[in-house]
Amino acid sequence: MTRLQRLKNCFSGLGIDGMLITGMANIRYLSGFASDEQGVASLLVADRPYLITDYRFDEQAREQRTDDGVEIVVRARAEESLGQTLQRLAKGAAIKRLGFEREHIRYSHWQALAADLALDTECFKPLSDVVEKLRRRKDAMELQHIRTAAQVADAALEQIANKLSPGVTERGVAVELEYALMQRGSEGVAFPTIFASGPRSSHPHGMPTDRVIERGDMVTIDFGAVIQGYRSDMTRTFVLGKASTQQREVYSLVQEAQQLGVDRVTAGVACSEPAKYVAEFLNNSPYARFAGDGLGHAIGLETHEKPYFAKEDDTVIEPGYVMTVEPGIYIPGWGGVRIEDDILVKDEGIDLLTNFPRKLIEID
């Protein structure tokens, strides 16, 4: 069954007979068309799917289309608004109730579309996470892309770890890491690289600066590769020189917490269970008040996808999910430690996709 057919099979239960897809990751998943620019295409799924774009993306859309049943509609922006194009197609498809992705369309944009469509308010149905739920279980092709992205990240970090030394800057090493990713085939970075050293390593999402790395610093690097749109996400923390007693203590605590989390992940378990288990472990430690909230998230065409390893998320984990496990301790003014890996949930057990060493590495 194709991805588009799986989506159409949901229509009856949703009470719609057509759906407008505007989230770019969802459009890529269903049609193959890919762009980092929001709003350059829309996918109308009805009796047949229509990918609507303009002259700039006509060739690209036809080249990337993964389903020959998707009709490419190129509109002349000066002559016909998107809403007018949709009205013409919706009328031809006899759509009486149209679902739309409320998280992926601006209110002002929707107002303009609704006015052009000239349909009553009750003809529209706002929907959430419809395509996202279809995306949770990765197929063999998706898994291969994520595996490759993880392998690229492993290799790039191994190269860059040798460049960590007193006197280099955060920004300088981060740039070399991103270049190393792309040398190995990454389409770019999965997200802006997080790179923080010394006391700044207590910033969970610290962006690289011109700070000069010093001996004795902890260095936290959180980054990912992108292969055919699919992402990896890995974090490692290093120490330049010999680690202090406290650095060893905190690192050991986070390493144990991460392993406990990984060991609790299995098909059929609620996402909340590993999160609660690790939170309880960290809450019983001397560093309880410095523990980060949440344990991880799903990953795929987007870096942060649902479900989440969070105490309030009772989504049941299924085979084919790819999730991160990333506990951390962040002590303001001192520094922080995070260890993160990508894991594939299987029918029985898991596969670790990121395999850079998890032990404490002291770089001398």
From TrEMBL:
Domain named Peptidase M24: residues: 145-346
Q: Which InterPro entries match?
A: Creatin/AminoP/Spt16_N, Creatinase/aminopeptidase-like, Creatinase_N, Pept_M24, Pept_M24_MAP, Peptidase_M24B
Which CDD domains does the record cross-reference, listed alphabetically? APP-like
- Coiled-coil blocks: none
Q: Name one Pfam family in it.
A: Peptidase_M24
Residue ranges constituting the Creatinase N-terminal domain according to the UniProt record: 3-135
From the Swiss-Prot or TrEMBL record, give the protein name: Xaa-Pro peptidase family protein
Which species does this protein come from?
Microbulbifer spongiae
